[in-house]
Give the backbone structure.
Amino acid sequence: MTEPARPGRGWLLRLVLTFSCAQGAVSMARPAVSYRALALGADERAIGVITAVYALLPLLVAVPLGRRTDHGRCVPLLVTGVALITGGCALSGLAASLPVMAAWSGVMGLGHLCFVIGAQSIVARRSAPEDRDRNFGHFTIGASLGQLVGPVAAGLLISGHSGAMAATSARALLISAAVAAVSYGALWRLEHRPAPGGAPATADRPAPVPVLGILRTRGVAAGIFMSLAVLSATDILTAYLPVIGEDRSIAPTTIGLLLSLRAAATIACRLVMTPMIRLLGRTTLMAGSCALAGLLCGGLVLPVPVAALGVMLTLLGFCLGVGQPLSMTTVVQAAPDRARSTALALRLTGNRLGQVAAPAAAGLLAGLAGTAAPFVMLGALLLASAGIAGRPPKSEKTAGAGTGPFAPPGTDRPAGAPAREEHRG
């Protein structure tokens, strides 16, 4: 289901603002959930379970949600997602036991998944093939802004002094629910309703493309793996840089500043995505950014001064900014036209699996070989992603059309030729 592009990009700005609020709420709530659980008597194992529930529960519904979105509207998923995030944040703040907190953490994760599938599908539908890289890059700025502001806000709101953590973490969760609810203010007119009688009857729709068929389409698995590698690097960097700071006697405030530099560099990268693609080409940019990020991750284990560490993290943040938006475009352009939302849902499934498996592997390696091991693992993962991304997918020759054995007839054409006519009409 493809929606013709309309003049202007006001819808994209509203979507970025909505995503910033939703992501900011989740980024504020997740550390607040951990602090709230600690105040309720949780140990490291219980924190791990609560964190895993956030990532694991959505895995059960990602593909069905993608299937539904392929043949329906996207905004209902955004509305549902914001409602679940708001409810999950607020009820986590009111929860008085760890099992209840884990359940509401799963609801929050489900809401985030609903929102992201719907939002990415809107960008894929409303963007002309030649604009997808730019629009996905701008869209992911919303996530970066939320990730930049959310943890800082949580840190300012939560206090561990004089046994106040239970109350202050609950307050942070209620405030994060209010931030998520603000997202409703920008959900208007993000997509156009189909004309009466314009949607095909269910009986006339082609059979859904099998999941294995989507994964076997050249370019889809590569985009999923690159996204998984980049997201794993971001998560583990956030978790283990404080450990390196402790080993090197770097103050927590300095570590926080270094992480903020990384996030700011990611935003800067996405603002200049289009000129970089014009200069280097998509394949070179994807492979080069992953390769350089892999080398920089490995370099973080070297005993360099704090200033040099800041430069390395800034460069690393810039390189990591490439992977998420371009992996979205890679998956969308490679997937069959009638299964794009399902392909995006599979990409998010890979992300969630990475969020569970990569920290577990990093913890195991850190226990066996020290704090340097997770960064070496990330370097290897990103270098492998660079090797895979260096093979140009067939979809670059047929941008905007589904490729592979499930492509509709007549899609083997030069990039954008008939597609541009569709979007002008």
Remarks:
- The mean pLDDT is 79.
